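Ticket opened by: R.M.
Priority: normal
Category: complex prediction / small molecule

The reporter submitted a protein together with oxidized coenzyme A and asked that the result be attached to this ticket for the collaborator who will pick it up next week. Submitted input follows.
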Amino acid sequence: MAKQQVTVPDIGGAEGAEVIELLVAVGDEIALDQSLIVLESDKASMEIPSTAAGTLVELLVAEGQELAEGSVVAIIEAAGDSPAQQAAPSSVADESEPEPEPEPEPEQEATSEPQAAAHVEAAVASAVSPAQSAEQVVPVPDIGTDEAVELIEVCVKVGDAVAEGDSLVVLESDKASMEVPAPAAGEVLEILVAEGGSVKQGDPLLRLQSVAGDSIAPAPAPAPAAASAPVPAGQPKPIAKAAVPAAAPAKPAAAAPASNKDIYAGPAVRKLAREFGVELGLVTGTGPRGRILKEDLQSFVQNSLKAGPAAAAAAAAGGALPTIPDIDFSAFGEVEITQRSKLDKLTAANMQRNWLNVPHVTQFDEADITELEVFRASLKAEAEQRGTRLTPMPFLLKACAVALRDNPKFCSGLAADGEQLVYKKYIHIGMAVDTPAGLVVPVIRDVDKKTIWELAEEVLLLAGKARDRKLTPAQMQGGCFTISSLGNIGGNGFTPIVNAPEVGILGVSRAAMRPVWDGEVFAPRKMLPLSLSYDHRVINGGDGGRFFARLLTLLADIRQLVM
Ligand code: CAO
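Result attached by the on-call engineer:
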């Protein structure tokens, strides 16, 4: 039976989307289109469907690993003919053979020098019968590549007592770094490598005398290893990206400054931080479980430099912003600590960035949507016939599109140097969607050119995709303006935060019947509370007032939408 690769499809150009969940396991029967893994990029979580039906024979990715379009996810032994792409000859040619030979053990295969072979043999022997010999040679485990990688740090010295899982050495390629953990508790007898040298999988690292009774595993693997994932020709093979075990934050590298000891970061990041003189405690980690990535450090340094020497000095001194004290809440009662999703943390970082950078003004008003609601109610049956739902959202989108067309400054963006305004000649509007994974903002394109029915369908489709984590990054890019509707939840008003580099956002609260003075009597009218926040560097009060007034007119008399 043919084996077929499942690769990461077009994910809208997202680089380095991280595997946050494995939904299947080796041996599972997989249906066509069944979701295999969940990827999370800066913009979205998305499930990667299988392009073949059959038995999952290899799962080539691990949680925490970063993938790009084309990365191989799994090998499926197809049950029959399927539209899946055939395995690429360069990487899994052997897999397609009718009767593949079993592959040799990677440790043994990778050991080329006689001395190394002897050491590994000793290690394997120890593993087989720990009672006979408690001494072993610890080899470089499966690091997901046959290439040599640099050994950047030896974390122990001869005579050191190590606990199982303690970091022995740190390996680093141009893609990632990883710590090799001790397979057992014991004493370091001899170190067989030197810092700065190159090593390959299977090479001996050191001799370890394990403590009595402690069992020895033959080849400790770095925790979330990418293992031996085949990679499409021309792409570098990833090695384990995470430098720490998945279950628990790793010990800091031996040379980490004491003040950084509780920070969750890998050794390469710590080394870089030491080189830059950055206090890691000031850097927000966006990796799994809040781990600080190299990219986090780079953006921290970039932002500090952009903010100028005074701010950089203040940041270095921990004084860029007054910090909120870290309180031990358990001192006051029972607590439960949960880990925030990457999406939640990115949203938090974006909110803070936008709140701090954009001088916000928020205006409040109410739209009289009495007639709109009568019209909407009259279309309920037709909506059902069409298999859709007609909420106020499509009307809001359409009204905003017309107001944006008539007030083009709201459809502009401020150049980073503040010198120019970029007027967008298209009207794409983002719609904030509340999902269990966090807040996402899919963008509806060319709202001005679509009918209310088309918009209704697109709202349903994108909100559904958002909640099912099926949005692609491309579906969340290119917005000119955003609508955030809490209408189905409640509230009289709120102050939405501008989704920079956009310059305006409309907050929608819950519509309600209210007595409105019509000049003679109080009349019952359905009023929709709206709040308009804008970037006061671009939009002044007059611009804001005109946009808002136009919007209210359009919503009060939707015939104007077609004018
Ligand atoms: N006032 C009163 N009722 C409203 C309303 C409003 N402003 N807006 C919607 N409703 C009603 C709808 O009409 C619908 O009822 P009917 O089926 O009887 O017509 C019901 O509430 C549910 O609507 P909905 O929420 O499913 O659909 P929607 O098109 O109004 O909104 C979406 C879609 C995706 C915007 C919304 O579901 C959502 O996720 N909102 C949250 C956005 C958010 O979190 N913003 C905050 C961002 S900052 O933290």
